[in-house]
Amino acid sequence: MTLAQAERIRFASSTPAGFTDILANGRAEAVDIEGLLVMPDAPAGPVPLVIASLGSLGFTSGREELYAGAFAAAGIATFIVDSLGGRGITETFSDQGRLSLATSCADALNALGHMANDARIDPARIALFGYSRGGCAVLLCDDERLARAVTGARVRFAAYVALYPSAWMRWANPQPAPGPVLVVLGGQDIMVPPALGRRRVEALRAAGAQVELTVIAEASHSFDSNEPLRFMNETNMCDCDVVLADDGSMEERTSGLRLDGDWSAFVAGLRSTCGKLGAAVGYGPPPRNVAVAGVVGFLHRTFA
Questions:
Q1: Is 215 helix (H, G, I), strand (E, B) or coil?
Q2: Where are the beta strands (DSSP E) in the chain?
Q3: Average model confidence (pLDDT) for the chain?
Q4: At 233, is the pLDDT very low, low, confident or very high (cuts 50, 70, 90)?
Q5: Cβ neighbours of residue 148 under 8 Å, at least 6 residues apart?
Q6: Disulfide: which of 56, 69, 221, 225 matches 92 by Cβ 3.0-4.6 Å?
Q7: 51 in helix, strand or coil?
Q8: CA nearest to 147, candidates 158, 136, 162, 161
Q9: Out of 45-49, 54-58, 180-184, which region has the weakest mean confidence (pLDDT)?
Q10: Is the separation of the CB atoms in 212 and 181 below 8 Å?
């Protein structure tokens, strides 16, 4: 499938520099952005929905068509949140300082609040899905404090799916919201090494989250991209450990670097202290659809 036939829907969100702008001071700039809605053919009544949070490559990787097509065939709608285009950004792979992770989370949660009011969608069956940067946003959004701050007590995600989620940011004291979690890692991923990914999963489990973990032994980062595996001289921040306090303030534990309101400067500091060069992204040896059946199966079990 292509996204050319997708319905474009505008909704209100915000552009916080950090999580304190959501949880504490409410200073985030308001903005309207778009999402692309892909409905299954001939839907019978309100259907389940997957809200997709973009990765760092934006729409260039082909992952949106891959998963939206598979979800539609399974009777599930997809709403792809375009956190980049409405803010004049095409990608963040070369510079994560262009858009904060707090913004990706604000967009996902505001999309939930908006789409829960769409009569075509079953508000009790909405999942959050993301890959790489978007996968990190998924795990950060699985937090009751954040959900309450954005959506109130009205609505929550029914499930969370994070594929090779960037693991350099985490909650110090996770407070998972209800809903099971699926995490899929690549066994050869040098940007999210499996040992690091497993530590993030165990921390969520220890906090009470119900997490399923799948490791695809031969897969690397972005194993579902439309580009074959390639090595790139880009920043790899897997050695950084940015920890979020209960009020949303953040500190990188190895350097002591703290966010002072300038996200771009904070990321520049991360690159120069705990970042390193060397990234490998793309599909192969497994086919790029290697995770599709497992993700669809997880959603079917959750939505049943």
A1: strand
A2: 7-15, 29-38, 47-53, 77-82, 121-131, 159-163, 169-171, 181-186, 211-216, 230-236, 242-244, 250-252, 276-281
A3: 95
A4: confident
A5: none
A6: 56
A7: strand
A8: 158
A9: 54-58
A10: yes
pLDDT at 120: 97
Query: How far apart (Å, rounded) are the C-alpha atoms in residues 191 and 189?
Result: 6
The strand pair at 159-163 and 181-186 is best described as: parallel
* Distance, CA of 216 to CA of 18 (rounded, Å): 32
Omega cis (within 30) before 285: yes
Q: What is the pLDDT of residues 50-94, one digit of tens each?
A: 999 998 878 888 999 999 999 999 999 999 999 998 899 988 888
Q: How far apart are CA 282 and CA 292, in angstroms?
A: 16
Strands of 250-252's sheet, edge to edge?
169-171, 242-244, 250-252
- Please, what CATH class does the domain formed by 7-303 belong to? alpha beta
Q: What distance in Å separates the CA atoms of residue 46 and residue 128, rounded to the nearest whole number? A: 17
Residue 283: is it exposed, middle or buried by C-beta count within 10 angstroms (0-12/13-18/19+)? buried
CA dihedral 235, 92, 156, 146 (to 10 degrees): 70
| Nearest Cα to Cα of residue 130 among 205, 46, 55 | 55
Look-up: residue for tokens 């979800």?
A: 71
Residue 108: predicted pLDDT: 98
The residues spanned by each domain of the chain are 7-303
Q: What's the pLDDT at 270?
A: 96
Number of H helices, E strands in the chain: 8, 13
Instruction: Tell me which residue has tokens 């967009």.
Output: 107
How far lies 219's CA from each of 202, 205, 227, 295, in Å?
21, 24, 13, 16
Biggest alpha carbon distance in the chain?
54
